[in-house]
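Lab notebook, bench 4. The sequencing result for the construct came back, and we need a structural model before the next group meeting so we can plan mutations. Quick request posted to the team channel:

Model the 3D structure of this chain.
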Amino acid sequence: MFIRVKKVKNGYSQEYEYAYLIQGIWKKRKSNSKHIYHGILGPVYKLSNQLDYSFEDAFHTKFFDFIQTKTTKEIYTQLIVLELINCGFRHKNNVYYKDHIIVDLNRLIVHNQGKDVVLKTKNIGGYICSKTLEELYSFEQIRGRSEGLMLIKKLKQMGIKLEPNDFYELITKIMAN
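Done. Here's the predicted structure in token form:
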């Protein structure tokens, strides 16, 4: 599954971007793909990275040392928090906010005034929404190569950038659980 963004005009000729969840299926006989629409994720809000903190700068610990004592969920939360902090979000009780946008990492929701939205944090990839949060947090244990590749894809889709050594340590930790 992937996220497709389309521009939509309202009645007042204003243009908005909306994100859709799409599943691509490869047709071997016809040598083409078919895209199946799975729903609207919401309007897209483009955020600029105002800051460029590394994991060590933001949390005053090395990634390797951090993951040794934390659960998979806590690790994912801190990786997402780093993205949100770099985009200028503030927090209170694991709820992050900027303007009217709220990211609640306890309930795994991304809302603007009570409606689902999609945050675009990077030029390529970087989509954070309720659906991508749910999909990321579903990876509590990796049982094989294909699941490891799916985790890489989810992290990239959300704009989370890890050094190769850090990613290796994360995979090792998740496989050990």
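DSSP finds six helices and ten strands in the chain.
Will bring this to the meeting.
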